[in-house]
């Protein structure tokens, strides 16, 4: 099938499908006229990729996991290499969540301090200028 049909069947735009191909996540043959020709199982592959991306995995992680993926959701057998890769990603997410929580807490403290002083000692805040 051509890229337009794969895009239609999966709901993933052609640009993303080309990106998946460039990352080694998806394969296509080339027809004589140079068009991409995807095999039927590409629909399942794209669905698996979308689920794994939704879990926060990088395209590099996904490239490593995809050969073992089974089914649409997908299921991943618990071999030690796969488990180690997923645990590593989980730790990176946990670290990121902790950093965000610390930032949130620091910002909350600044807001509380500003509210306590009433903000009278500060010049007017021009939000549009700050965001520009």
TrEMBL record:
SUPFAM superfamilies xref list: Putative DNA-binding domain
Record-linked InterPro entries: DNA-bd_dom_put_sf, MerR-type_HTH_dom, MerR_fam
Keywords: DNA-binding, Repressor, Transcription, Transcription regulation
Database matches in SMART domains: HTH_MERR
PROSITE patterns registered for this protein in UniProt: HTH_MERR_1, HTH_MERR_2
Domain HTH merR-type: 1-68
One Pfam assignment: MerR_1
Highest taxon of source: Bacteria
Keyword Metal-binding appears in the UniProt entry: no
PANTHER family: MERR-FAMILY TRANSCRIPTIONAL REGULATOR, REDOX-CYCLING DRUG-SENSING TRANSCRIPTIONAL ACTIVATOR SOXR
Protein name, as recorded: MerR family transcriptional regulator
Organism: Nocardia rhizosphaerihabitans
């Amino acid at each position: 099938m051509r890229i337009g049909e794969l895009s239609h069947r999966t709901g993933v735009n052609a640009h993303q499908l080309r990106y998946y191909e460039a990352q080694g996540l998806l394969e296509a043959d080339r027809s004589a006229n140079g068009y991409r020709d995807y095999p039927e199982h590409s629909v399942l592959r794209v669905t698996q990729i979308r689920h794994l991306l939704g879990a926060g995995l990088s395209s590099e992680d996904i490239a490593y996991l995809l050969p073992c993926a089974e089914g649409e959701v997908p299921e991943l057998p618990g071999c030690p290499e796969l488990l180690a890769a997923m645990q590593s990603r989980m730790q990176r997410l946990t670290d990121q969540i902790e950093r965000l929580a610390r930032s949130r807490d620091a910002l909350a403290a600044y807001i509380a301090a500003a509210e306590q002083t009433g903000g009278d000692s500060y010049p007017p805040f021009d939000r549009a200028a700050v965001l520009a």
